[in-house]
Amino acid sequence: MSAIPYCDDVLDRSISLLQLVDVSKSLDVAVTRVHQLLRDHQLIAVRRDGVLGVPETFFGADGQILRFLPGLFSVLRDGGYEDEEILRWLFTADDSLPGTPIEAMHGDKAREVIRRAQAMAF
Where are the domains of the chain? Predict the structure, then answer.
């Protein structure tokens, strides 16, 4: 199997990360399944202080991956964005949403975030 993909930590240190074992517990799957989700680009991990982690805000209150997040990743990657650029965009404040795109993904603005991502990607 290939190595576990991750990108540079471009996030503010205040953004909480879940270690991969904690992601597996939240999703109630084996940690190897989390590795596969990363390889399949369903999640993005960063290395912080030598430990791989996934932003906690990628998960809903039920502990599952936000419904539209993998699709959003696909749209942005298809548009030529690298993981670091995706993370920067998701966690940068946008007054028109309001908040950040990742915060909007938790509410009723998820489809608007995807629409904006489609417009940016082309």
Answer: 17-121
E runs forming strands in the chain: 17-19, 46-48, 51-55
Query: Cα–Cα distance between 62 and 66 in angstroms, integer?
Result: 9
Alpha carbons 52 and 105: distance in angstroms, whole number:
23
**The model's pTM:** 0.93
pLDDT at 2: 58
92 to each of 8, 39, 100, 103, how far by Cα in Å? 16, 25, 5, 10
Instruction: State the amino acid at position 25 in one-letter form.
Output: K
Measure Cα distances from 37 to 32, 34, 67, 68, 94 in Å.
Answer: 9, 5, 14, 15, 28
